[in-house]
Design a protein that fits this description.
about 250 residues, Cytochrome b N-terminal domain-containing protein, Cytb/b6-like_sf, Cytochrome Bc1 Complex, Chain C, transmembrane
Length: about 250
Amino acid sequence: MSATVYSIRDSIKNLPKNIRSSVLRPVEGTPEQARAAAVFGNVFLHIHPARVHENSLRFGYTLGLGLISFYLFLILAISGTLLMFYYTPSTQLAYHNMKDLEYVVSFGVILRNIHRWSAHAMVAAVFLHMCRVFYTGSYKAPREFNWVVGICLLLMTLFLSFTGYLLPWDQLAFWAITVGSNIAAYAPWIGEKIRFVMLGGNEVGQMALIRFYVLHVALLPVAALVLMGVHFWRIRKDGGLSRPADR
């Protein structure tokens, strides 16, 4: 009886410690294993592996183009969210909103230029990143699947740039999308249907603007985020960043 009482008392006394242990899951072992467990147990630190090959960190090999592309995406997401506060996807108001950003809103022209030039830079960075991967043979086994994911991310980057082109609703945007949709219409058999789905009709108007807006601010960014998550996960599963085969 007394042993049972002491057992219950010890359990109650150690309850906070047990809860903390169940949440944090401490791992006993060597100091190196403890450091690795600290990385595995933190969602932010877990983005990077516990060990990295020294040649994977050579700037001259990767040029940091993948991270540059990701950081540019973050800049675009932040600046684009701020721009949404001053933009209305309407053929009557969109162009005036752009002029308000340029002449009325404090630092509006800076915000818009940050978004615009970051978009141009991201297209260039992603393209150069793909060229670097191809040039160094980093698409070969076991990274074939991640190469396909990278191609999808390149297409997403181009689609994001294309859909954002119409949003200012000026002459350049109007005729650029007109030319782009007409090019899509030349696809065999389904070209006219593709053009109709793109524009929501037979001409560049309100339906086209709202469709491009939804694609630009919602559907394509979410798809890009999912693909980036898969891309980063595959980098980890494939043994980290690529490196020279003989290193």
